[in-house]
Design brief:
Mean pLDDT: 90
Order of helices and strands: HHHHH
Helix content: 55-70%
Number of helices: 5
Distance between the termini: 34 Å
Length: about 80
């Protein structure tokens, strides 16, 4: 049950941080990373990639909110809006 509506570049960024990138192909945009089997170390790698993409550190609330594909997409969309 995949709903890959997030932009392809968002999913590509997330896949960089995963030990098993193919796992993301089975995750919908709103599915919770932890419930889908993505570990905390992988979320940290996703956060580091996001920080590099955004060219700034993520705040505490942003880090806590990294729980789905759509959450990552929202942070990247905010960069595009600036």
């Amino acid at each position: 049950m995949t709903t890959a509506h997030a932009p392809r570049d968002v999913r590509a960024l997330i896949k960089q941080g995963l030990e098993h990138p193919s796992l993301l192909d089975r995750i919908g945009d709103d599915d919770d990373f932890a419930e889908a089997g993505i570990g905390s170390g992988e979320v940290i790698r996703i956060a580091l990639s996001l920080e590099e993409e955004l060219a700034r550190p993520l705040g505490d609330e942003e880090l806590l909110g990294l729980s789905s594909v759509n959450a990552v997409a929202a942070l990247l969309a905010a960069k595009e809006a600036v």
